[in-house]
Amino acid sequence: MSFTVVTTGLKFPEGPVALPNGDALVVEIHRGTLTRVTPDGTNTVVAEVGGGPNGTAIGPDGRAYIANCGGMIATEAYGYVFAGGTPENYTGGSIQAVDLETGEVETLYTECDGIPLRGPNDIVFDAHGGFYFTDHGKSNDRGNDHGRLFYGTSDGSSIRLVASEMHGPNGIGLSPDGTRLYVSETFTARVWWWDVTAPGEIVGGRTLAGSGGGNFLWGSPDFRYFDSLGVEANGNICVASLATPGICVISPDGELVEFVSIDTDGDPGITNICWGGEGMRTAFVTASSTGKLLRFDWPRAGLVLNNQGSLV
C-alpha cells in the first residue's frame, strides 16, 4: 500500500489524532511535547507536557487528553531510535489534558486508590464522556511491572481499576457500537476484548486464564510485538506491528483480514494508526524509530471517534 511521508524529524512520535482541517496531532515521547503537523509537513509545538507523552484522545471539552508514561530511555541501534526502560528522571505516570488553543496543561490523575500510575500508554473515550486507558507499566534490569486498565472521568473526579495482571497492555479501542473494549498486548502480540456493560464496567471470562480476565481475539504466529490500535468503521481492529513493521487488520470474529506491510527506510517501529479526511479514508501512521508521520489512502473507512467531530 503506497503512502506519503508527511513530516520527519519527530522525536519518537505516537498517539496521532486527525483534525478536521487536515492537520494531525502527535505526541513526541523523547521531546515531551504535543505537536501539531500541517499537511505541508510543518511542525508546531502545542504544549510542553514533560515526561513521556504516549497516547492522545480528544475529550468532550475539546481538549487533548494525554496518557503520559513518565518517560522512556532513548536508545539508538542499527540507525534507528527506540524507546523503553525507566529513565533516571522518572517521577511517575499521569493523565493530562491540554487546551489546544492556549497550550495550558492540566494533570488530572497520577494515582488510583493511592497506587501510582506507572506507564499510561493509550487512551480512548466512550460516548458517556469517560475514558479507558492502558498502563503498560515500567521496566528496568530487575524486571517488568504487570500492566493494568483503568477508567476515568474527564473532569478529574473519578478513576478506577478495571483489569490487571496483563503483559504490556498497549493499544486500546472501542467497537463502533461501544459494546466491546479491545486491548493489544505488546509482549505476547495478542489482542484481548471485553464486553462493556456500563460506563467503566467490563466483563470477560470467556477465555480460561485470559490476560486481565479478557477474551482472546487473535495472536500473531509470526515474530512481532504489538503497539497501539485503531478501529475501522466496519469493526475491524487495526494493530500496529513492531519488528515486523506494518498493520495487522483483524476482524471482530478473530480472523486476520490482511497484513499491511510498511517499509519506510526499514523502520521497525510502526506504532499507531488513526483516520480522518473525507469519508474517514485518510490514515495517519507513526513510524517512530525514524521520526516520521505517514499518510495513506486507506481502503476502508476508519471509525469516527467519540468527540472527534466536535473539533473545528
UniProtKB/TrEMBL annotation:
Superkingdom assignment: Bacteria
Residue ranges of domain SMP-30/Gluconolactonase/LRE-like region in the record: 12-288
Name of a matching Pfam family: SGL
InterPro entries: 6-blade_b-propeller_TolB-like, SGL, SMP-30/CGR1_Lactonase
UniProt name for this protein: SMP-30/gluconolactonase/LRE family protein
Organism listed in the record: Rhodococcus globerulus
